[in-house]
Amino acid sequence: MSKVTVVGAGNVGATVANVLAHQDLVREIVVLDIKGDMARGKALDSWQQASIDSYSTRLTGTENYADTADSDIVVITAGIPRKPGMSRDDLISTNAKIVTMVTRSIMEHSKNPIIIVVSNPLDVMTHAAYKASGLPRNRVFGMAGILDTARYRAFLATALDVSPKDIQAMLLGGHGDTMVPLPRYTTVSGIPVTEMISDEDLDAIVDRTKKGGGELVKLMGTSAWYAPGAAAAQMVGAIIRDENRIFPCCAQLDGEYGMKDLFLGVPVKLGREGIVQVIELKLNDQEMDLLNTSADHVREVMEVFEGLDIS
Ligand SMILES: NC(=O)c1ccc[n+]([C@@H]2O[C@H](COP(=O)([O-])OP(=O)(O)OC[C@H]3O[C@@H](n4cnc5c(N)ncnc54)[C@H](O)[C@@H]3O)[C@@H](O)[C@H]2O)c1
Ligand SMILES: O=C(O)C[C@H](O)C(=O)O
Questions:
Q1: Is 229 in the pocket of ligand 2 (CB under 6 A)?
Q2: Which GO biological process annotations does it have (predicted)?
Q3: Structural domains in the chain?
């Protein structure tokens, strides 16, 4: 596996390419954007960093899909980000068209890629790419849960004054304010987090996590990119190394958690073939209720998507 395409050379796309290049895992990264010179410039800038940071991954930029031919993995970050006051769902009509067109163009030049979607609203955009690609569900999935748990882990690390490296956590649901961080599946070096923090403080951290994207949009006027870019690069790394790592990702459910034909955040095992397994947790009633509420919200956005005219 050695060719990765990143579509969208904006804040997130450029970060995915740059972080991935630093892992020195792939032969070639192609960065594609409708603004071809921006893609060329960012790829060239990252390539000029190679001798300083010691990696061999060759980066090039383009606006031409022929240059993406025979990609093993494609990360789609193309689309508009939200501005303060907007929800991710407000992006749907613009980004649904972009993600669909991008996926169709990718499939004209790569036979059997793995596609990782980043564009928002994430769960529905992952469905859009799945539908436009014709690929099986194990090869099309979305990045959100790694980012959302990373935020949760960062907030916990600050509150407990420990390293975020020692916090392990799981999270379910759609990538929106109804996401479901799971304290029952959160540990600090194996110690249940509930033994280290009060219920009140933990609740506040769960709530801040759910609104974590919006907090950054408010601060910066646009959405985040360092942690999102690193999260997508981590997924690419796990696939290329065939590691079977378990991450929360947006995957199509086929009966798991009692749901079908819906893309939602769940724990998955990631290896060379993409999603090797969707992992079903034994949820309690309260967790299941929260997951159902989140799924209902994603279904509402799906209805908007189904009503769009994307020719
Ligand atoms: N899943 C997540 O957790 C997560 C995290 C952060 C951002 N996002 C989403 O990722 C997307 C990108 O965010 P960003 O901050 O990088 O935005 P950005 O505006 O910095 O970059 C987006 C890029 O997409 C390009 N683009 C637009 N239409 C295109 C097309 N048809 N073909 C190719 N390129 C095209 C633009 O030219 C631009 O360079 C947004 O939708 C944002 O909401 C998702
Ligand atoms: O919040 C956003 O709009 C971008 C992204 O989904 C995030 O969580 O940072």
A1: no
A2: lactate metabolic process; tricarboxylic acid cycle
A3: 3-142 (3.40.50.720), 145-307 (3.90.110.10)
